[in-house]
Amino acid sequence: EMYQCEESSTKKNGKKIYSYTKRWFSRWIDATRFHNLTVANQACGSTFAAIRNPRFPANVERNENEPKRMSGGVPVGMFKLHTKLSDKFQADTTVSLSAYTGKFPSNLPAAATTDPVPDITISNTRPIGNFLMTCNSAQVGCVRISLKRN
User: Fold this and answer.
1) What's the alpha-carbon Rg for the chain, to the nearest Å?
2) Which of 53, 78, 110, 126 could pair covalently with 104 via S-S, beta carbons 3.0-4.6 A apart?
3) Which conformational region is residue 77 in: left (phi greater than 0), alpha (psi within -120 to 50 degrees), or beta?
4) Separation between Cα atoms, residue 136 and residue 106, nearest integer Å
5) Strand (E) or helix (H) holding 86
């Protein structure tokens, strides 16, 4: 997911009013289509004003409608579970990443500075809570990854 600015609208007295909020999204939000960039800049901050909603890193798969699967079945020792059987397993338990904190940088940039965001690597991410994140706190352009197991 990436922390991005989103536009929404309501009608008041027959006129459309646009508002802007920041939150986590699995899909890219194209800010070039926003109706009021001045208000969006104020609501979403200086990072948004500088780089808008940057595109996802090239090495992050983002199809939110399909569960991630291992193609060809799941390896079990020297064997593989057939795909028809392995598809029955659901990754639904969040993996705690706190045990791996020492293997990552202790500090990260405050915010994204380029569009697209650089590829995710061990040198630009670190575990924060149950996520692998590219920023110390949620800022426009920050990417977070959650790992699941069954």
Assistant:
1) 19
2) 126
3) left
4) 9
5) helix 83-86
Task: Measure the CA–CA gap between 146 and 85, rounded to whole angstroms.
Answer: 24
Token pair for residue 68? 């991630």
pTM (whole model) above 0.70: yes
pLDDT tens digits for range 84-95: 666 666 777 888
In tens, the pLDDT along 38-75 reads 999 999 999 999 999 999 998 886 665 555 554 556 66
C-alpha separations of 68 from 20, 60, 61, 87, 132 in Å: 31, 12, 9, 10, 17
Residue matched to tokens 């104020």: 42
Which stretches does DSSP call E strand in the chain?
2-12, 15-25, 74-76, 79-81, 93-94, 126-128, 131-133, 144-146, 148-149
